[in-house]
């Protein structure tokens, strides 16, 4: 990193705008415009600046902690300077800058030129332009002509982040920021259907475009056999279409409505903590919701029944390395948050489509490439859902059942990353548990394959269509404050007791606990039932004297398969361990480093963990990795049924008993279920109103 202008540190003072804004409030439209104006003021007026992100520079924790404490106590809060973090290029150059703007003081505090080998995320305008450039290029047209496609065939271009391989040879250099476009056609027999699934008709021509010159720099021809052989494009055999849109299907006709009705509205309350920030309270939970261009949803200051649990929660990073070893597929490794951004890719969620029931939407304001505010309507939906039974017991002697439903609060955001979708949700329940759920869906990234061939690194999902195997590896950043800021991570393991006079039948087993003292990467061990817990050793449960804790339930996944010398491995610094524990440092937010596009590694959670810091009873950050090895199925095409992955945080010795005991019983007078006949016809009303309420309880 070279420094163009040295940063000027400024003292922390209250500014002119601070009384209007909360330090965690997402940047307002006015603040985005003001940030852009101040950055433009650094340069001659004819300079064309390409803004990549203009986002809140969150306050240092040392400043924010007393603010939040005062806020919770209802006392006057200290002034904290509002800052924005701005990433921009001088357009059509590699001159990447990151700047910190003091909005309170109306000045640019620091402005750094970054590089070499540091590249920023793409943006919506750039992607659209790259698509067009690929299709307008005469060389690309000449290659396409060799395919002798039917008259009127529509070509579709999917720009991909170029990736890194360390090659620096002429046109094959990865030193400069580039895009690799994969080309497809729409069904030539239905060319006017803009939503036709072009991924069923991949071409072997792949233009590479320079992000600086915005010109095609080379045209790759993709291997379509079982080896590295490249064949000259030849007349294309149009295969049958494979559409996902409903009008292309014969829809089943036996589905009856299932309406989620909340006649008295929802049980949550939502208020503004800033112009765009929201505080959510629901069933003893309270937290603040922010939204930014990179992470999308961010939760702050999560409390249950007034007890602090998490300072900050967000999806920090993801990596999707592909299995095909051949050029140019060997570079395919998407880091969708850092390369594009979960915020900027968020869907505009639609009532009655993406969430059911009584829905409250949150909208956001991000920035476009000109530095203008960009309205992002309905990027988060908040709603409740019934998730079956929460707990139940029947006393078989009396026949009396006690049962409660498991109501959940859901904050959901859906991102579209070109072909793929991720449905991302924080979920809270009445038993003090927090879940983070990812549903992977959308369309596989496909490539052409010759008929009659199969390969061990991918699945043929349609005639002539290969979907390569790939891993989805996510990193959830958890900044805990379990009953206070000083936490530790411990892991429990269950081991058989040795046979002895004490264990004469060889059946005993015991659970041991090991504290993690040093920052590093740690792994699950299912044979030992290894369970990681975030613990506050200074706060003891009055029932058993054990430290209060939250345990982490994360499903097993295969760690990154690319070898340790590969760029995929070096770049995805989080992808090699289930858990990373680091000491807290301001500005260490993204597990794969701040700039993932064509990154080279050396920054991210693996590097931070290598500091070997103390993480025992200190301010720590826990990075929870989870994912899937996606070996595509024919059933994943033309659109993939949701693959669900869920991480849970559950209280362990945190409460004095089941915290959901006070959930009102599940009764017919509340639930209003109806009897249904054997052929599914609804009958009005229904018996069983006293299913678990005893009229003459002795209590
Ligand atoms: Cu996948």
Automatic annotation (TrEMBL):
Contains 1 topaquinone per subunit. InterPro entries: Cu_Am_ox_TPQ-bd (IPR049948), Cu_amine_oxidase (IPR000269), Cu_amine_oxidase_C (IPR015798), Cu_amine_oxidase_C_sf (IPR036460), Cu_amine_oxidase_N-reg (IPR016182), Cu_amine_oxidase_N2 (IPR015800). Residues 258-661 form the Copper amine oxidase catalytic domain. Keywords: Copper, Disulfide bond, Metal-binding, Oxidoreductase, TPQ. PANTHER family: AMINE OXIDASE, COPPER AMINE OXIDASE. This is Amine oxidase. Residues 22-110 form the Copper amine oxidase N2-terminal domain. It comes from Amorphotheca resinae ATCC 22711. Its cofactor is Cu cation. One of its GO terms (molecular function) is primary methylamine oxidase activity. Topaquinone (TPQ) is generated by copper-dependent autoxidation of a specific tyrosyl residue. Its EC number is 1.4.3.-. One of its GO terms (biological process) is amine metabolic process. It holds the Pfam family Cu_amine_oxidN2. The keyword Lipid metabolism does not apply. Homodimer. Belongs to the copper/topaquinone oxidase family. The modification 2',4',5'-topaquinone is found at residue 420. Transmembrane segments: none annotated. The active site is at 336 (proton acceptor), 420 (schiff-base intermediate with substrate).
């Amino acid at each position: 990193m070279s420094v163009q202008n040295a940063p000027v540190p400024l003292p922390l003072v209250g500014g002119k705008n601070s009384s209007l804004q909360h330090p965690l409030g997402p940047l307002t439209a006015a603040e985005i415009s003001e940030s852009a104006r101040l950055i433009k003021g650094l340069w001659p007026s004819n300079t064309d600046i390409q803004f990549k992100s203009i986002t809140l520079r969150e306050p240092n924790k040392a400043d924010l902690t007393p603010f939040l404490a005062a806020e919770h106590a209802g006392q006057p809060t200290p002034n904290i300077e509002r800052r924005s973090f701005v990433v921009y290029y001088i357009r059509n150059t590699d001159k990447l800058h990151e700047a910190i703007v003091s909005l309170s003081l109306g000045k640019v505090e620091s402005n750094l030129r970054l590089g070499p080998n540091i590249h920023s995320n793409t943006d919506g305008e750039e992607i659209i332009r790259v698509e067009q450039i690929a299709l307008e290029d005469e060389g690309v047209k000449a290659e396409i002509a060799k395919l002798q496609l039917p008259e009127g065939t529509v070509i579709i271009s999917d720009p991909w982040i170029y990736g890194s391989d360390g090659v620096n040879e002429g046109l094959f250099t990865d030193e400069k920021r580039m895009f690799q476009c994969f080309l497809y056609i729409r069904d030539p027999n239905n060319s006017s259907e803009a939503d036709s699934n072009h991924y069923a008709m991949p071409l072997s021509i792949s233009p590479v475009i320079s992000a600086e010159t915005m010109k095609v720099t080379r045209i790759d021809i993709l291997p379509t056999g079982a080896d590295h052989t490249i064949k000259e494009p030849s007349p294309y055999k149009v295969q049958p279409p494979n559409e996902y849109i409903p009008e292309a299907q014969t829809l089943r006709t036996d589905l009856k409505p299932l309406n989620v009705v909340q006649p008295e509205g929802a049980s949550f309350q939502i208020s503004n903590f800033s112009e765009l920030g929201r505080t959510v309270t629901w069933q003893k939970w309270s937290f603040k919701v922010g939204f930014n261009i990179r992470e999308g949803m961010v939760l702050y200051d999560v409390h249950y029944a007034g007890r602090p649990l998490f300072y900050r929660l967000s999806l920090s990073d993801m990596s999707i390395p592909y299995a095909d070893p051949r050029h140019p597929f060997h570079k395919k490794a998407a880091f969708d948050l850092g390369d594009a951004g979960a915020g900027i890719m968020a869907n505009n969620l639609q009532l009655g489509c993406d969430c059911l029931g009584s829905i409250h939407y949150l909208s956001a304001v991000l920035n476009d490439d000109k530095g203008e505010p960009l309205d992002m309507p309905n990027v988060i939906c908040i709603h409740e859902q019934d998730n079956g039974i929460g707990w139940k017991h029947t006393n078989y002697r009396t026949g009396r059942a006690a049962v409660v439903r498991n109501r959940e609060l859901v904050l959901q955001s859906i991102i579209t990353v070109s072909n793929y979708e991720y449905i991302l949700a924080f979920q809270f329940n009445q038993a003090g548990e927090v879940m983070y759920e990812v549903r992977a869906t959308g369309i596989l990234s496909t490539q052409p394959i010759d008929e009659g061939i199969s390969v061990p690194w991918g699945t043929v999902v349609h005639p002539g269509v290969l979907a390569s195997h790939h891993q989805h590896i996510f990193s959830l950043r958890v900044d805990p404050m379990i009953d206070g800021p000083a936490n530790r991570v411990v892991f429990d393991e269950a081991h058989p007791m040795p046979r002895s006079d004490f264990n004469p039948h060889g059946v005993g087993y015991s659970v041991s606990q090991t504290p993690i003292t040093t920052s590093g990467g740690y792994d699950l061990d299912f044979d030992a039932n290894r369970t990681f817990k975030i613990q506050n050793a200074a706060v003891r449960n009055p029932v058993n004297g054990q430290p209060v804790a939250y345990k982490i339930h994360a499903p097993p996944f295969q760690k990154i398969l690319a070898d340790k010398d590969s760029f995929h491995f070096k770049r995805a610094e989080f992808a090699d361990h289930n858990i990373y524990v680091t000491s807290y440092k301001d500005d260490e937010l993204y597990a794969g480093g701040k700039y993932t596009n064509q990154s080279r590694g050396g920054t991210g959670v693996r590097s931070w963990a290598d500091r070997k810091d103390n993480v025992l009873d200190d301010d720590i950050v826990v990075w929870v990795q989870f994912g899937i090895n996606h070996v595509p199925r024919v059933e994943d095409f033309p659109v993939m049924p949701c693959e669900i992955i869920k991480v849970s945080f559950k209280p362990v010795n945190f409460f004095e008993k089941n915290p959901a005991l006070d959930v009102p019983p599940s009764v017919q007078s509340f639930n209003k279920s109806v009897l249904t006949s054997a052929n599914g016809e609804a009958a009005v009303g229904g018996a069983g109103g006293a299913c678990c309420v005893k009229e003459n309880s002795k209590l």
